[in-house]
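Structural prep section.
Before we set up the soaks we want a predicted structure of the protein with LLP in place, mainly to decide which crystallisation condition to try first. Input record follows.
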Amino acid sequence: MDMTVENGHLLWDGCDTVELAKTYGTPLYVFSQSIIEERCQELRQDFVDKYDNVRVAYASKAFSTMAMMRIIEKQGFSLEVLSDGELHTALKAGFPVEKIEINGNNKSMAELEMSIDHGVGRIIVDSLQEVDRISAIAKEKQKTVNVLFRITPEVNVNTHSFISTGQKDSKFGIPINEDILFPQVEKAINAEGINFLGFHFHVGSQLDDNSAHLGAVDIALDLVQEVKKRLDYEVSELNFGGGFGVRYTDEDIRQPFAYFLDPMMEKVLAFCEKENYPQPAVVIEPGRSIVAEAGITLHTIGAIKELPGIRKYVSIDGGMTDNIRPGLYAAKYTGVLANKADQPAAEKVTISGKICESTDILVKDIELPTVEIDDVFATFSTGAYGYSMASNYNKLLIPAVVLANKGQANVIVKRQTLDQLIENEVIPDSLK
Ligand code: LLP
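Run finished without errors. Recording the tokens verbatim:
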């Protein structure tokens, strides 16, 4: 993986990671603001500035913190949220509410009310009960809500089955079925308090092949044509989700955004031209591809155990609580000893976490310089779905997050404290 080394130490966006580990303690998430901004710049160049009437809505589930919302806002992007918690984070960060869109296959009434009260830009309907609910709330509050329908495009996706979402048998989306979808669309078009904009899909995540996206665009455009034919209604917006893959290890490919977006846009533009259809706005929702490679995690090495002829276990002071992806998706990562970043590999080890769980293995069989206690291990590409999926299992603390930017480092999330772990707990009188 690409890295900068100075005096044997790994630098991250100009900051000495060994110093960061010393100053802020480990485990520590470190994000490079410059890399996040570079990815946004690529998106602007390959999409926003290249095509008319297109938008990027960062999928905040990948990494949702107030500082991140500020970065995204400064890029002029919109924001996708999935829960009251993600919405709250965005609002507290001062994110313009009209640029927020909310997804979710089971939004609660409270989440819908909160979204409508604040005036979110779009609600993406993902259940058969939602149109009625939104219409009722909107009517009561005398508001009009922009709505898209998330459809299940029924494409099979070449990624881990746990993160593919567009196949027929999925909890996500409204099935493209005569008797289910069209009555709902008709209802949304006619419902009071609802402005029906169009369709949304998200085929899956961590893709390095554009075929699923392209297949889904075809399906969405067929649907657009069908809606015109049956209901004489022209949609004004299509949302193609996220899913663009990143590099976790040297084996992964990160395709340029244009690899996905150019042929997708070509299909949309060709359709509009052929059908004489007004070009709908096109929105994408990248999460991982904006933040994954910008983040690293620093851990300190403690216990070292050699099983002769089997393997050498090197244990870190965190694990699946700060990165559940290896345990959950068999995700592969790589890393370096941040304090020996200029030394050649000398041994093969397995990096294990400290959680009471056999699947708590961060990296299996990695070549590193001779590993010693107190070395700092830096895992690459942990920026997406690391902090956001962190847990307090075994009552470990959620680590701090530092934002590095050209040699300057700022804490953007403080490390949890032991008292915070129990602050919501109550001992009933009978047990006192
Ligand atoms: N839009 C929708 C509606 C989504 O469901 C997702 C991800 C995204 C956008 C962003 O996708 P991205 O560009 O990040 O691939 N925890 C899993 C990933 C789950 C993604 C779920 N939806 C992981 O760690 O791989």
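Observations: The radius of gyration is 23 Å.
Flagged for discussion at group meeting.
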